[in-house]
Amino acid sequence: xxxxxxxxxxxxxxxxxxxxxxxxxxxxxxxxxxxxxxxxxxxxxxxxxxxxxxxxxxxxxxxxxxxxxxxxxxxxxxxxxxxxxxxxxxxxxxxxxxxxxxxxxxxxxxxxxxxxxxxxxxxxxxxxxxxxxxxxxxxxxxxxxxxxxxxxxxxxxxxxxxxxxxxxxxxxxxxxxxxxxxxxxxxxxxxxxxxxxxxxxxxxxxxxxxxxxxxxxxxxxxxxxxxxxxxxxxxxxxxxxxxxxxxxxxxxxxxxxxxxxxxxxxxxxxxxxxxxxxxxxxxxxxxxxxxxxxxxxxxxxxxxxxxxxxxxxxxxxxxxxxxxxxxxxxxxxxxxxxxxxxxxxxxxxxxxxxxxxxxxxxxxxxxxxxxxxxxxxxxxxxxxxxxxxxxxxxxxxxxxxxxxxxxxxxxxxxxxxxxxxxxxxxxxxxxxxxxxxxxxxxxxxxxxxxxxxxxxxxxxxxxxxxx
Length: 467
Hints:
The structure is a single chain. The protein is built from 13 helices and 15 strands. By secondary structure, the chain is of the alpha+beta class. Strand 2 and strand 3 (about 90-105) form a beta hairpin. The radius of gyration is 29 Å and the shape is elongated.
């Protein structure tokens, strides 16, 4: 980046493609959308590779029969599934994760896979997303995908390391929903230099009428589940796209909390959480084995969003917050001078707030639209406040009666007249402290006006030169 704010092309090292995989497992710690989380779910370990065991020679002994019966009757591990998830870095597709029924050693196991680099084209992404949406009879104005990005992901000067790690604790993530046309517009023109994930929309359970999500707060000794469902029907064209899709990511008034009755679904979600933790621990152990830093990383606590589709399958959507543990945390807790990063990591509490949310400028309404030819959208127009000169989204403006404006003006004058030396008839504009005491209300146009007055005064005082 040059001093004149122009940008130069950055040549990435050939190892950058694998940096999301195993460069630094500590990047899993943090809040928000984490690219490393998806890469670890995709990564295979030795347990996955040895699922298919070679048949042993026939042995009719009682001991061997007991071993075979124990192996066959053992409860299978829960299947991990993720929707089609495309990781974008600076507006360009970087990785594409999906769930395939033809995975595993024998190509007959449902597993998380990753597309080849040659398939990471915008045309292919749009084609796959729309074809899978068409298979479930999705209309032109129905939800087909959503994009989750950081508030600061549009900053072109962000470091590459920042994109590899979790979003900072103080930064929330914004979500945008797309139908068929807006998905095409986003892929062609709306990506800009954003970093985040584009994820295919999964048709919800219950006939696909109302969108719903499950948020799991998992610890080794406790798993708290919460489910929210939209109030509006996904196919109800009287409401805009966002009102039909938002759950945890929008205001509570647009969704309802639905209890998880029984123990079957809750037990399945908890089993998947345990399998996620076990899988990450196995992959991390293999990749840190023999390294100079003898620290075994594992997930201590996490908050993950899930979704149940129309066939009862549970899908992993994203992680909201993850805290790590390590062997170093358990061995040197008694040392007073021990302040390693792993100890600090494991002691930090989970962020159980809603990290993924709508932009503040998103326009939402609870009233249905009954005008047949009216096109609905959630885009807000921006206005400038005549009182404070702030530029903000239209939904943030409120009508103010003239009576309130006049009363505020009169109180401001009384405050200024209390100091004779600062009487408005003698000193104008008032001092900055008086403007701040009035909440800057009513003085929004003051500074632009003073700037114009100053320019006019300078032009009048500048002597004219005669040729």
